[in-house]
Specification:
Chain lengths: ~475, ~40
């Protein structure tokens, strides 16, 4: 009987657990270890942050799902991994004490650890809000609703939304949040009481950490997807603070450095800034009890996989195969990383260092869709290995599709969303003979009501899938 | 390239948006098909 342990039950871990449970659950031991007892649908937290959705609608309990899939569930926090002896130590929730979970195969799917400490003053425990976790999104909502009351009383408020670190990723979420705030304030009739500022470390609006999205327009012309985003921001009256890496936040101001190395500040009444992401926070120990984390993870805590690391950006652009394909750790072949937990070989956007030596570069985004795909690939490969076959599944981010739907309003009648379809996520100039290195038939940026329908469809079908309901396997990640 | 007046009309037109909804789904499915075979 094989034992498979999965750390994390987000998009990647939960997807892997469902595939493994369905194929191996009855005869083998599958165990999921997760900090919380629920699965949270992260994309909906943008709406939770403006009170457009009830908190309980964005989550569901994991245990009943795993019972159906013959998967064991341990709620707790992993405190260490012992890859030479194949076990994980867990500090169980609700005073359950320390437990040890043995494995033959380990999937690390811990998602992003929000490293608020990398920016002094950042985070829900300090001065800014965050919609990156369920509890912090609820707190952001409450702070936002208080702000609304002030605006209703006629007080003008300044809201700054964006990235809170020079290396932060996930600009799409910040962009979606600010456009939803605009729509919500407009519907409440108090838009004139708010100054909305989009503060970002992107080299240009519409970069989104993927180097921008250029698309084919009628007549075969190549158009910059960022222009559509800029147009939307102008229409919505959003102030732009582009090419800025936030260095510090205090009670009233956000301090940043821009690409040119100039320092500046922004005042705010409400700020939702996405922090730098880190990988795992637990250490890896060898048999002698020595910390060998540096052999398993990169300095950011992301698990090393089967990619090619250490290439310069110029070399990386020419080497799409540098991106991991099966997400297997090169040192410990029974450890796989899925979703945000794997170490990317570098950024997708062009890196930039200021004259003061500060690197301001958006991190490579790994959305729920990408995480789900990696979770499935890793699970299917482990199923192969358990059944005595060689691994047959692989997909690099330079072969992967991503769809990002940034809504502006939730209504299916007069809502809108900007749909960004990017294929592949990492440009592959060896496969696509164009300047963009992407399939320009599939890659699209467009705005309209169709996006709002697509967003609703994706949310409904994903929740159906993640609840393991009938036909869940047919729904793409 | 900024959206033209025609582009803005298309963003509001429900019939056109229904067509785009179908097209976008087909584009996604084309790429997903590759992914599912991975």
């Amino acid at each position: 009987m094989a034992k498979v342990a999965i750390i994390g039950a987000g998009f990647a871990g939960h997807t892997a657990a469902m595939y493994l449970g369905e194929s191996l659950g009855k005869e083998h031991e599958i165990t999921v270890i997760h900090k919380f007892d629920y699965f949270g649908f992260v994309p909906s937290w943008v709406w939770l942050g403006i009170d457009a959705v009830k908190a309980e609608e964005t989550c569901f309990k994991l245990k009943p799902i795993y019972d159906r899939f013959n998967v064991n569930f341990v709620q707790g926090k992993v405190t260490s991994v012992h890859p030479e002896e194949n076990y994980v130590v867990v500090d169980q929730a609700n005073g359950g004490g320390e437990a040890s979970v043995a494995y033959d195969y380990l999937i690390v799917a811990t998602g992003a650890h929000m490293n608020y400490k990398a920016t002094p003053g950042l985070g829900p425990d300090k001065f800014t809000e965050s919609i990156c976790h369920f509890d912090t999104a609820v707190k952001a909502r409450d702070a936002y609703l208080q702000l609304i009351e002030k605006m209703k009383r006629g007080e003008k408020q300044r809201l700054v939304i964006g990235t809170g670190h020079p290396l932060a990723a996930c600009q799409g979420a910040a962009f979606e949040y600010i456009t939803n705030i605009h729509t919500d304030l407009t519907q409440r009739g108090i838009r004139d009481k708010a100054d909305l500022v989009y503060l970002t470390n992107e080299p240009a609006i519409g970069d989104f950490g993927v180097g921008g999205i250029n698309v084919v327009k009628q007549g075969g012309r190549i158009a910059r997807g960022g222009d559509l985003i800029e147009d939307l921001m102008e229409e919505f009256g959003l102030e732009k603070g582009v090419r800025r890496g936030v260095k510090e936040v205090d009670e009233k101001k956000i301090y940043w450095e821009d690409f040119e190395g100039n320092f500046g500040e922004d005042e705010y009444d409400f700020a939702m800034l996405i922090p730098q992401s880190r990988g795992v926070t637990f250490p890896f120990f060898n048999k002698a009890g020595e910390d060998i984390s540096s052999q398993v993870t990169n300095p950011g805590g992301f698990i090393l996989a089967d990619g090619i690391y250490g290439l310069s950006y110029d070399e990386l652009v020419k080497t799409p195969d540098a991106w991991p394909a099966n997400y297997q750790n090169p040192l410990f072949n029974n450890i796989f990383s899925a979703g945000i937990a794997f170490a990317p070989p570098g950024p997708i956007s062009v890196p930039h260092t200021t004259k003061n030596g500060t690197t301001i570069t958006p991190g490579a985004p790994r959305t729920g869709m990408i995480s789900g795909v990696i979770g499935r690939i890793v699970a299917l490969n482990i199923i192969d290995l358990v059944n005595g076959r060689r691994m047959t599944h692989r997909e690099r981010m330079s072969e992967m599709l991503a769809v990002c739907i940034a809504s502006n309003g939730k209504s299916l009648w007069n809502g809108q969303a900007t749909v960004m379809i990017i294929y592949p996520v990492v440009p592959d100039h060896t496969r696509y003979d164009n300047k963009e290195g992407r399939d320009l038939f599939v890659t699209r940026v467009e705005r309209g009501l169709a996006g709002a329908w697509l967003k609703q469809m994706v949310e409904t079908t994903f929740m159906h899938k993640f609840r393991g309901r009938i036909g869940w396997q047919l729904i793409p990640e | 390239m900024r959206p033209t007046k025609l582009d803005r009309f298309k963003m509001q037109c429900k019939l056109y948006q229904f067509w785009r909804f179908i097209v976008l789904n087909l584009k996604i499915l084309k790429a997903v098909d590759h992914s599912k075979r991975a």
